[in-house]
Amino acid sequence: MAIARGGTLIWAMMESPSLLMRDFSDGFLDAYLAQEGEALLGSVGCYRLESRGAQLFEAVDGDYFAILGLPLVPLLGLLRREGALAA
């Protein structure tokens, strides 16, 4: 993620979370797909870690919010330091 002000980069960071998928049965996968339905199509990677998708993984390493698409905690810290949010 990068933040610029007036065309000048003022902050940048990169998060690289990793997820280790667990072994599961075809039956589990079929049930998961049926339960989640069309909602999966609106999710990066077609899993929803914030929902039943958490059951697909054996291990998750890294920032939860980065996995969802935005490293929120570091961004909020920057916004507080820059005075855009109350400290």
Short description:
By secondary structure, the chain is α+β, with helices and mostly antiparallel strands.
Structural description of this entry:
The protein is an alpha+beta fold and 87 residues long. It has one domain (2-81). 30% of the residues lie in helices and 21% in strands. The chain is built from three helices and four strands, in the order βββαβαα.
* Sequence of strands across the biggest β-sheet: 1-2
Helix-strand topology string: EEEHEHH
How far from one another are the termini?
22 Å
Q: Averaged pLDDT, please?
A: 92
What is the count of distinct domains?
Answer: 1
How much strand content do the residues show? Answer: 15-25%
**Structure classification:** alpha+beta
User: What fraction, in percent, of the residue positions are helical?
Assistant: 25-40%
How many distinct helices? 3
Described by its quaternary structure, the protein is single chain
Give the beta-strand count: 4
Rg from C-alpha positions?
A: 17 Å
Shape: elongated
Q: Main β-sheet, in a few words? A: 2 strands, antiparallel
